[in-house]
Design a protein that fits this description.
Layout lengths: L8 H27 L3 H12 L9 H28 L4 H7 L6 H17 L20 H11 L6 H15 L15 H21 L9 H10 L1 H12 L6 H18 L3 H14 L2 H6 L1 H9 L8 H58 L3 H8 L6 H43 L1 H86 L5 H18 L5 H8 L1
Helix pairs in contact: 1-2, 1-3, 2-3, 2-5, 3-5, 4-5, 5-6, 5-7, 6-8, 7-8, 7-10, 8-10, 8-11, 10-12, 11-14, 12-15, 14-18, 15-18, 15-19, 18-19, 19-20
Length: about 550
Amino acid sequence: MSHVFSSSRDEQAKLLDDSLQAVKVQAFQMKRCVDNERLLDGLKHCSTMLNELRTSSLTPKNYYELYLATFDALQYLIGALRAAHVTGRHHLADLYELVQYAGNIVPRLYLMITIGSAYMSLAGPPSADGAHGSDSDEAIPVREVMMDMLEMTRGVQHPTRGLFLRYYLSQMTKDYLPLDGIDGPEGNLDDSTHFILTNFVEMNKLWVRLQHQGLSRDKERREAERRDLRTLVGSNLLRLASLTGVPRVTYESDILPRLLSQVVSCRDTLAQEYLMEALVQAFSDEWHLATVGQLMEAISGLGPKVSIKTIVIPLVDRISAYAARRREELEKAHAAEPEEQSDDSNDAASDAGLSVKSDAAPESIDAPSEKDQTRDTLPCGKPESVQSEAEDSNAGDILNEVTENENVDEVTAGVANASLDDAVSDNNNESDKDGSNIAPEKDAGSDVASEKDADSDIASENEAIDDVASENGANSDAASEVEIKAEAPRSELDGLASLFGSFWEHVSNLIEARPDLPLHDAVAICASMLRLSLACNPQPLEPVDSVLVF
């Protein structure tokens, strides 16, 4: 193996130009064969082009430029492979086995990943109308292809070549990983998480091994190259966080323990520091809140040269921003509740007033007062003053008529009494008998009528009472629902207030477990915890006192 880092910049530039020129020529020949429907000849030119990636003379940064040129050329081949499979000219399963006879392992694995990812794309993802990538009813063995490519890539253990090979595997399969929970030949979500986690572990091992390549005097140069390549390893965390449908229980029990175990066990300062920062930024705030104990335990087990401050402070700042944002939303919801309750009470009062008026209306119809009867006889178009004057004039006329009638009755009373005395004395006995028989009948009829009227009044009053009670019950149910909704923001506000206590307990244990932590780093972490306390609940001073006392 040539010592890569000891070569000059001019030699590196010449080697890179020669490799890029060879890639350009072979890519042109491959495209011409594919356009003429000579796919097998195109695969031969593609294999020759991929031979340039076997070099060990380029630095990782220059190798990355060569990789990008090769990657762009391979994208043209993927469309031709799908078209050949759909038209029936070549089956991708046969081509997948055919390219395994390539002479060198690096071109062989790149071709296998290219054809395998094109084969996986035919099984999904589903389109908007529910159809999959292929119109045929063929069952694509996605799980088998995934696991085969994952195992075959173990054949390349060179740090630079193996790292870029696995990065290519991650790039080509990211859009075609199965996300269903049903077990079958097409795979499920557990297969996807296992695929990404395994690839992450192997890439991290290769990335750590890269520091031992070359001479010891070029250590700083190698560290700089490793920093440039760290995004290749961190991309797996982004793939893992972007998987839809992963439950939080699976993240807590399976995904996060494997990630933290790999980070802690690698014992590399650069890898531990970068991977923990990437893990904090990749996953959601809710998941960090649920797993803060595991995170702090893993941080306490990192190497002595790892900057704990650069890991803990971004985590605390993310939780602070989440708590402040959530508290503002809950306070707005809590402030809007009194307005809703007042609106509900006003609606209930108006409904109750309408019900009382509707209940009182039948009583006024059944038993109108004398004043209402006189008002009903008045013209509806006159004002009240005119109506009162009319009532006074009518009352005067009635009194005059009554006095005149009294004078006439006094004149005729004497004659009438003389003639009636004889008739009354003759018929006293008969009138007594007839009156005794008729009066009870009239009284009985009036009693029956009055009883019926009373029963009808009681029934109408009971109906009115039932209506009012039902309306009151509905209003009470609405009020109880409003109270239940009001309790939810209050309980979440109480949870945010208690968030600081649990978080501070883990952070304080971390600081105590790392006696080698510099004082200024510990002070910076405590300052971030003060910001978290103000974000959770700015009113009480006990959390601030606990940090200052510590």
